[in-house]
C-alpha cells in the first residue's frame, strides 16, 4: 500500500467533506474534479460515505425509508437462505469482521444478502454477490451496504447476477475484442489456444476484483469503478492481460490452455501493486463509447448465434454522473444528517429557555428537532463525574445509537 502523508490525508478529508456537503453542485459543475479525487484515492475515513453518494444509494435509501427494515424482518425464501448461510464463512475468513462464525460481520452479511433476494425475487442470490457485499460492510452499516449493493447490481452491472450469466458472457467477448487494440500478442495467444474469456474473467468482473487484487489496490479500483463505471473493470482486466501475456517472451512460458489459465490465476504481484496498477488504468485509452460500440456489435453476434437474450436487463449506467443525470435527486435527499449526536450538559446561555431556567432546567435542541432537558442545579463541575452527569451521558449515547445513520466515520 502507498503511504499518504498525514497532512495530505487531512487536506483530502477536508475537500471531500466540502464536496459531500454540496454533492449536486460538484457532480453537475465539477464532475472532472470529483473523478480526479477518486483516482487519487478517497480518504479511508470517508470512503463509506463517498461510495454511498457516488452510487446514488443515499438517494435510493431516502426514497425508500423503512424498506430495508421491512425486508430484514421477513424470513426469506428457504432455498436462498440455505445457500447464503453456507457461503458466509467463505468471505474474507481472515478479516476480523468475518472470522467468527455467527459474529456480527457474518450476521450483517446474511441480512444484506437475504434482503436482496426479497428485493429482487426473480433474480435471487448469486455467490459472487457475497464478496461484494462483504467489502461494502467493511465500510458502512448494513442498510447502506444493501442499497449500494442494489445500485451495483441494477445500475453498474445489470444482469451479472441473473441465471444464465448472459451479461457476463457478453462482457467477456467485449473484453476479448478490446484486447486486440491493447495487445495484439496477448489476443493472438488467447485465440490460438481457444481460451474463452468466461474462463478467466468471470471472477474478476463479477466480484469487481475483490478476490483477485491486494487489498490496497481493491480499494483504489473500487473508488474509480463507483465513480466512472464498468470501464474501470475493463481497464483492469486489459492491463492484467497485457502485462501477463503482452510479449513473445512471456507467452513462451505458457504453451497451452492449462498453462495460460494457471498464469492468469497467479498474477505477478508487481502488476497488481497499487501505484503501478492505478497509473496504468488511468492511462489506458478505453472509453464508455468504445465499450458501448463493442457491446452493440456483440449483441448482434449473440442474436445470430443464440437468438434473443433470456434475461432483459436495464441499460447499464456508466458511473456516478450518469446515475445522477438519469434520476436527479432533491437537495433534501442529499442532505447529510449527523450520525452521532452528543448533547453537552454545558449549553451556552443562548440555548437556555427562560421559563425552563426559572424552573432550574436547561433545554437544547439539535438539528433533527429533538429536545433534551438537563437539570442545571446538579451540574457544578464538568470535570467531576457525578452520578447525575454519568446518567445523562449514558442517556445521550443511547439516543445517538438510535439515530437514522449509524456509521462512525467523519
From TrEMBL:
Rab-GAP TBC domain location is 41-229
List the Pfam families. RabGAP-TBC
Q: Where is this region: Disordered?
A: 373-410
InterPro entries (UniProt xref): Rab-GAP-TBC_dom (IPR000195), Rab-GAP_TBC_sf (IPR035969), Rab_GAP_TBC_domain (IPR050302)
Q: Where is the composition biased (Polar residues)?
A: 394-410
Q: Which PANTHER family has this protein been placed in?
A: RAB GTPASE-ACTIVATING PROTEIN 1-LIKE, TBC1 DOMAIN FAMILY MEMBER 10A
* Name this polypeptide is given: Rab-GAP TBC domain-containing protein
